[in-house]
Amino acid sequence: MTSPRATQILSDVIDGAPDGAELPQRLVVACALGVPVTWAGLALVTEHGPGAMLAATDGPAAVLDELQFTLGEGPCIDSYATGRPVLHPDLKRSGPGRWPGFAMGALQAGVQAAFAFPLRVGAIKFGTLDLYRDEVGALSDDSLREALFFADAATQLLLHLHAEHPPDALDPGWLSKGANRSEVHQATGMISVQAGVGLREALLLLRARAFAAERSVAAVARDVVERVLRFDSDIGHAPGSPQGGAAW
């Protein structure tokens, strides 16, 4: 059941914004001001990783979403997997041992603390609210409670938008990001056949290739779908080597 505070947050976000496509962005901005944190993002997540960044404040929030998808690690991934908040108030101290790649990228982007909250209804999980700070520090009890209220509000907002708005009524940015992720899943299926491995292993090969080539997962997936790049059945080679990802 939605709390009265989450209902109030939704009311404040919706007030004066009749276009539903603007609401996720309004919510993350309100969250960054109200918790408080420096940056905030709202991401869809699937069992394969982040699905799309629906909204993000200015700053590194959107970049960190892409980084987590590429590496397959980070607070967003863990929060979705466990269905529990993931709180790291000192990323430099606790991050490298848990998420070495993500922690390095986040710290380079100026992020010192990261907090992720699952968006879920019962056992159904479909996203995370990701919060970042540019300085070390835990959320106070009141701030943590407010973050949980914002996660509740975000959950209800996404359910409402999914039920009330056809895809072509939403922000085109949502559609392009979703298309990128669809391309990734299509490429994963192709790699699975080419390399003779399961879908999970195929996604790992795709991520490894993207990481080794210093490209986004979406860009490498596009090469696979367009048959510019393929993964040979001989997967004993590193995915970044010519044998592990030869030209078509």
Topology:
Elements: H1 4-14, H2 23-34, E1 39-46, E2 49-56, H3 61-71, H4 75-82, E3 86-88, H5 91-98, H6 100-108, E4 113-121, E5 124-133, H7 141-164, H8 172-195, H9 199-213, H10 217-225
Antiparallel strand pairs: 1-2, 1-5, 3-4, 4-5
Helix pairs in contact: 1-2, 1-7, 2-7, 3-6, 5-6, 8-9, 8-10, 9-10
Query: What is the assembly state of the chains in this entry?
Result: single chain
Q: Which whole number gives the mean pLDDT?
A: 83
Share of β-strand residues: 15-25%
Q: Structural class of the helix and strand makeup?
A: alpha+beta
In helices, the fraction of residues equals 40-55%
Give me the strand/helix succession: HHEEHHEHHEEHHHH
**Computed Rg:** 19 Å
Fold and architecture overview:
- The protein has 248 residues and is an alpha+beta fold.
- The protein is built from ten helices and five strands.
- The protein is globular.
- The relative contact order is 0.13.
Short key terms for the protein model shown above:
10 helices, single chain, 248 residues, alpha+beta, 5-stranded antiparallel sheet
Summarize the entry for a quick read.
The chain is 53% helix and 15% strand. With 248 residues, the chain is of the alpha+beta class. The N and C termini lie far apart (53 Å).
